[in-house]
């Protein structure tokens, strides 16, 4: 099943000119990773502090777009400019999970939204990313299978944030979308486990 993650290579091509300038300026991959994390925490705090305000929610798509760009650039800097490190790998995996929680858990405080649906999606997101990393532990590749991976979650929450922030949809509609998303979130965990195990059986990590 196609996901937003499949567009990553095209997005990276667009970012490459900016990336070269960053490398020449001495900016490191780990610095970019930490910047993406800081941006996510600040934006999530804004939603948590003002859950009834429309502006922090409406700005979420912009925040997620910038975060996506930074996430793409930190990996490209590491791979293409000889900056790969064990610390970078740890920061990358932890940063993604913490950023997701920082941005999406505050939705549980938005008036009218179901805390159970929000927390459920966040838990499945953490389990899904853990399953992606477990693939490496058992001798497979790092799994990014969907249908609700990191980029797809960003589209879901970014769209709901924008629509709620502008008053285009009601919390009741958003709750239905969040509840429906629980199924592909659970399926993502299953797909990553299944495909990781298939790789191990076929002996092709």
Automatic annotation (TrEMBL):
Transmembrane segments: 29-49, 113-134, 154-170
GO biological process terms, semicolon-separated: phospholipid biosynthetic process
Signal peptide (residue range): none
Gene3D superfamilies (UniProt xref): 1.20.120.1760
Pfam family for this entry, one: CDP-OH_P_transf
InterPro entries, alphabetized: CDP-OH_P_trans, CDP-OH_PTrfase_TM_dom
GO cellular component terms listed in the entry, alphabetical order: membrane
GO molecular function: phosphotransferase activity, for other substituted phosphate groups
Key words of the record: Membrane, Transferase, Transmembrane, Transmembrane helix
Protein's UniProt keywords contain Transmembrane helix: yes
Protein known as: CDP-diacylglycerol--glycerol-3-phosphate 3-phosphatidyltransferase
Organism whose genome encodes this protein: Stappia indica
């Amino acid at each position: 099943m196609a996901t937003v993650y499949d567009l990553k290579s095209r997005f990276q091509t667009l970012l490459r000119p900016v990336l070269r300038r960053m490398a020449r300026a001495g900016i490191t991959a780990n610095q970019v990773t930490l910047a993406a994390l800081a941006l996510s925490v600040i934006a999530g705090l804004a939603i948590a502090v003002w859950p009834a305000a429309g502006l922090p929610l409406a700005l979420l798509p912009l925040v997620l777009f910038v975060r996506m760009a930074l996430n793409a650039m930190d990996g490209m800097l590491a791979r293409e400019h000889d900056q790969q490190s064990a610390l970078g790998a740890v920061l990358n995996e932890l940063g993604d999970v913490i950023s997701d929680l920082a941005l999406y858990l505050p939705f549980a405080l938005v008036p009218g939204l179901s805390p159970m649906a929000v927390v459920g999606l966040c838990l499945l997101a953490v389990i899904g990313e853990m399953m992606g990393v477990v693939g490496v532990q058992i001798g497979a590749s790092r799994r990014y299978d969907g249908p609700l991976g990191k980029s797809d979650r960003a589209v879901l929450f970014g769209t709901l944030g924008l629509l709620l922030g502008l008053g285009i949809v009601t919390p009741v509609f958003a709750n239905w979308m969040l509840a429906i998303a629980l199924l592909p979130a659970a399926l993502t965990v299953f797909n990553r486990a299944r495909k990781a195990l298939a790789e191990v059986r076929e002996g092709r990590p």
